[in-house]
Specification:
The chain has 84 residues and is α+β, with helices and mostly antiparallel strands. It has 3 helices and 4 strands. The protein has one domain: Zinc/RING finger domain, C3HC4 (zinc finger) (Herpes Virus-1), CATH 3.30.40.
Length: 84
């Protein structure tokens, strides 16, 4: 069960893999930087969130890194080490 929760929290909604180089949109949904670069409008600074469709008026490279994703992963790893 814990593994399923971890996977869901760290999963990119575009590629469905673990998020790589997580970037947060204005709506606070996070996706891989690579995936965001592949979205329509990415080169025109008009990103539509794949989850909620809210528009972020930035190019993918201008988005802030989502440190929450990294923190969740670190906490999970620490918890797993303590309980193992």
């Amino acid at each position: 069960m814990q593994q399923a929760v971890r996977i869901r929290l760290l999963e990119c909604g575009v590629c469905l893999d673990e998020i790589q180089e997580p970037r947060a949109l204005d709506c606070l949904h996070s996706f891989c930087l690579r995936c965001l670069r592949g979205l329509p409008g990415a080169d025109q600074a008009r990103l539509s969130c794949p989850h909620c469709r809210r528009v972020t008026r930035k190019q993918p490279g201008e988005l802030e890194k989502d440190f929450r994703i990294e923190q969740v992963n670190e906490l999970y790893c620490l918890t797993w080490l303590v309980t193992a």
